[in-house]
Amino acid sequence: MQIDAAISGLRYLPRDMPGSTALMYQGFDDAVPVADDEVCERWGGPSQEIIFHIHKRDEPRWETLPGGDFLRRNTKDQGRVYFFLTSPEEYWSLTTIKSIIDHFPLAHRRCLTLLEGLARSVPILWRDDPSISEHDARDVAWLLEHGLEPRRIRMAFNTAFADRFLAKLAIGLGHTILGPRVSSSAYADRLRNLLWNSTPGQHADSELRGTGFWRSEGQSDFRDPLAIEGAWTIAVGAFYPAFGYSLSTSSGRSMSMMVSDDPGLWTPGVVEQYHEMQIFIVVPQRQLFLGPYRVIDFVSHRLGRRLIAALAELEDSRVGLQDLPPRRLPGQSEARGSF
Length: 339
Hints:
The protein is built from 10 helices and 12 strands. It has a 6-stranded mixed sheet. A 6-stranded antiparallel sheet has the order 7-10-9-8-11-12. It starts with a helix and ends in a 22-residue tail after the last helix. Helix content is 27%, strand content 20%.
C-alpha cells in the first residue's frame, strides 16, 4: 500500500508550488554499517531521490511494516535520515524535502547533496553544516563514498497485512456508525482476532466476509466504478441483514469487508440512512475529506449527468506529468514511477 500511495500521490501535487507526497518504501539496506542494535531502511522520493533512514532494530514482527514500530518512531526513537537529491529542478528538490519532513517529522534529517541557490530556511541539516556529531560524521563519510552504489535491498513481506487493515477499518466504522453495542459483539471479536492473523486468507473459512488487496490483483481488466485515481474511496451501506463497506485504493484496487451481521445491535436510523450506499473520498496528499454522497449521485457525476462541485474541483486539481516541471534535464531519462 505504501508503494501504491507513493505512485498515485503524485497525481495531486500542486502545479504552481512544491508540495508533499508519500515516499516509496524500498526495504532494508544491510550494506550500510550501523550499530548492532540498528537497521537502515531505504526509501525513494518523487524524483528517484535516495533516502536512508537509520533507527533502532525493532522486534521481528515489525519488519514487514514500512518504517517499523511507528510507536517508537513517534516517541523515543525517531532515527536519523540522510538523502541525496537527484533533480536539477528546484520544484522537485523542495517537494522531496517537504515530503521527507512530513514523513519523518521528528527525525534528525541531513541532505547529502551540495546545492546552490536553494533556500536554507527549511528545517533540515545540510552536508556542509558544521554542527555534526561523531556518529553522524561516520554515517555521512560512508554514504558519500558508497551511498549511490547499486546493491541489493532486502524487503520482508506479509501478505496478511491487508486482512488486518480491513478488519481494523471495519471495527472503527462499526463503532462510529453502528454504535458501541456492535463493538462488543461476537462478530467484532472475530474481527479483532484477525488483527493477530499472520496467514493471508485465513478468514475465508470463518464467518468473516470480504476480499483483500492481493486478491483484487487479478481484476485488472475490470475498472472499479467507484475508484478515483490518486484518491481513496470508501462506500458504506446497509445490506440487510448485514452492514459492510467497499474500499477502492488510489490505484484502483478494490477491497471489502462486512462490518456487522446483527441489525438488532445497530443504532436506530442506520438502515434508513444507509440503505443507499454512502460514498466518502480521502486524498491524503491534499489533506482532503469529501462526502458523504449517495451512490446514485456519485455515479451520475462520474457519468457526466450531474455535477457535484467539490468532486469537479478535485478532478480539476489532478495533474499529469506534463503539468509539472521536468524532473530531468533534456536528454536524461525520466524517473520511474511516472504517471
